[in-house]
């Protein structure tokens, strides 16, 4: 465990080196937040009555997406791992005295947390202080806030588990771009990053419910705004935990199969 | 003239090299098709739920979407060299371009060409044709020319932004992520009619980066939403071509200030 925490810490410190990049990221996220909210406002002007989510809730949802982007987006690739696999340097990784799955998992987790802490901390107060109607609202109760933090944390573990599967798939495909591009487009769509899940048509929401993606982004954000009531939120967290067990179990099994058939060429 | 010939030589070279990895090429092209597809699908679902956006109908917005996404994907195909320019400077490769007796713009343009973006182009072309087929527009030659100008000048704007941010690499060496606001952000913004946004957005994207001039304003003319001054609306997209001029000038200044990283 000590080994994993230190990998995690190293990644975190490395991420903190790129402060200008973080600043640019904040500006970009703010801009996108504003644009999306203006579009939603324009749509809602015309018959918001039937909409399944209120405008203030939707605005909070949009900001949370922008603020926690580094925690929830699937497309946050670590080229180092891709190169390790395709170049054969994976041999060094295998020599390390700790499991490769846990090692990479800690690495990816640390990277995301570093990126997020650089972007969340400044962006969160800005979004909370914006003038109406752009302001990010507070959650309706302390319980909602607690459940939100818990579900976001579990959601983060889900995203990392899914992205682990993407990395492991490179053992077979050897070329990361094509296959990962398709999966990440689908993943982002079904996580509600392109259109919020509550605004999707019924049949599409059903599909989204069957996939792991929405549990990492859509679910915690709706817990935050209270759009998902507390009792339902607890059930959702149970579902998240099931997903984690399934995804990590599957990932470890897949990796052990991949490693068994890996042939490392000298060079 | 020799510049153009040289450029096409570059193109055929790049095409052959990218075709060496055929499976990966096809998968990527396929994937590129789905990026704007997902965005367009959500636009469709929004209209399905809300009916209309202010005074705009689905097909009108789809036309706007098609124009801007076509412009973006064409620009990404051609001007990819500028988009990836930071890696050229960072590796010190730009020195090699400077010692050749040809214009730097042609050489950087020729250094990269993303044929996989055809997937993206295809998707936006389909949307454009679909919207055109469904909208009851009285077509005449003037409107046809305007539409062609809109796409062409949209390409110039995106290319201009790529060049502008590539130029900044001469000083910063690193690529700048802020560029995304103007390329990706500009695209996301301009796929909806400009009048749904707040004033500061509209003003910025009309007078500073003229997305509004290649998209929203001439579209008003094509859809017959304005009376008179046809010629002014037709000529509006040319603002995109004008935008390119200072970008190329700044580039020339940047080239003169270039200091190699030496690596």
Q: Describe the global form of chain B.
A: globular
Total helices of chain A: the number is: 12
Class by SSE composition of chain B: mainly alpha
Q: Which chain pair shows the most residues in contact?
A: A-B, 34 and 37 residues
How much helix is in the residues of chain B? Answer: over 70%
Q: How many strands of chain A?
A: 0
Main β-sheet of chain A, in a few words? Answer: none
Calculate the mean pLDDT score of chain B and round it.
86
Give the total of domains of chain A.
1
Class from helix and strand fractions of chain A? mainly alpha
Strand content of chain B: under 5%
Please provide a written account of the structure.
The complex is a heterodimer of chains A (267) and B (263). Chain A is an all-alpha fold. Chain A has one domain. Chain A has helices at 2-16, 19-44, 55-67, 69-72, 79-87, 90-95, 100-129, 142-173, 176-190, 202-210, 218-225, 230-260. In chain A, helix 7 crosses helix 8. Chain A is globular, with a radius of gyration of 20 Å. With 263 residues, chain B is mostly helical. Chain B has one domain (2-256). Chain B contains 16 helices and no strands. Chain B has helices at residues 2-18, 22-50, 58-78, 80-83, 85-90, 94-98, 104-111, 118-134, 141-172, 179-182, 184-190, 199-208, 211-214, 216-222, 230-235, 238-256. In chain B, helix 3 (58-78) crosses helix 9 (141-172). Chains A and B meet through helix 2 and helix 9 of A and helix 2 and helix 11 of B.
């Amino acid at each position: 465990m000590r080994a994993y925490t230190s990998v995690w810490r190293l990644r975190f410190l490395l991420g903190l080196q790129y402060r200008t990049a973080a600043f640019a990221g904040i500006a970009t996220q703010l801009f996108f937040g504003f644009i999306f909210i203006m579009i939603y406002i324009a749509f809602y002007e015309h018959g918001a009555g039937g909409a399944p989510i209120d405008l203030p809730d939707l605005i909070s949802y949009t900001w949370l997406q922008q603020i926690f982007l580094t925690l929830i987006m699937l497309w946050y690739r670590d080229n180092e791992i891709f190169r390790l696999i395709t170049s054969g340097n994976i041999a060094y990784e295998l020599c390390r005295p700790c499991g490769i799955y846990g090692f990479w998992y800690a690495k990816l987790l640390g990277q995301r947390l570093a990126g997020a802490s650089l972007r969340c901390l400044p962006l969160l107060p800005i979004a909370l202080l914006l003038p109406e109607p752009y302001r990010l609202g507070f959650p309706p109760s302390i319980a909602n806030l607690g459940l939100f933090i818990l579900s976001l944390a579990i959601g983060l573990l889900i995203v990392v588990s899914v992205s682990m599967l993407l990395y492991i798939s490179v053992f077979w495909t050897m070329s990361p771009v094509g296959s990962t591009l398709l999966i990440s487009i689908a993943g982002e769509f079904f996580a509600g990053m392109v259109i919020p899940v509550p605004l999707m048509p019924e049949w599409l929401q059903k599909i989204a419910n069957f996939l792991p993606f929405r549990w990492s982004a859509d679910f915690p954000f709706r817990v935050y705004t209270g759009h998902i009531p507390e009792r339902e939120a607890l059930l959702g967290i149970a579902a998240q935990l099931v997903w984690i067990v399934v995804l990590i179990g599957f990932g470890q099994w897949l990796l052990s199969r991949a490693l068994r058939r890996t042939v490392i060429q000298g060079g | 003239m020799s510049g153009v010939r040289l450029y096409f030589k570059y193109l055929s070279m790049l095409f052959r090299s990218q075709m060496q990895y055929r499976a990966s090429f096809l998968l990527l092209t396929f994937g590129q098709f789905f990026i704007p597809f997902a965005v367009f699908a959500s636009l469709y679902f929004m209209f399905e739920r809300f009916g209309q956006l202010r005074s705009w109908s689905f097909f009108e917005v789809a036309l706007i979407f098609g124009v801007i996404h076509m412009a973006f994907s064409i620009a990404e195909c051609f001007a990819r060299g500028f988009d990836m320019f930071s890696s050229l400077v960072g590796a010190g490769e730009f020195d090699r371009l400077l010692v050749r007796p040809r214009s730097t713009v042609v050489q950087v343009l020729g250094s990269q060409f993303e044929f996989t973006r055809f997937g993206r182009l295809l998707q936006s072309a389909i949307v454009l044709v679909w919207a055109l087929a469904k909208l009851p527009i009285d077509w005449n030659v003037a409107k046809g020319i305007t539409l062609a100008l809109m796409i062409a000048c949209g390409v110039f704007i995106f290319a201009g932004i790529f060049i502008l941010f590539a130029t900044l690499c001469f000083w910063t060496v690193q690529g700048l992520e802020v560029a995304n606001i103007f390329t990706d952000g500009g695209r996301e913004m301009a796929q909806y009619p400009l009048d749904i946004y707040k004033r500061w957005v509209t003003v910025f994207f009309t007078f500073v980066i003229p997305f509004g001039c290649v998209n929203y304003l001439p579209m008003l003319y094509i859809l017959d939403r304005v009376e008179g001054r046809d010629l002014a609306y037709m000529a509006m997209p040319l603002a995109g071509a004008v935008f390119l001029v200072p970008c190329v000038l700044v580039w020339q200044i940047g080239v003169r200030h270039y200091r190699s990283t030496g690596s």
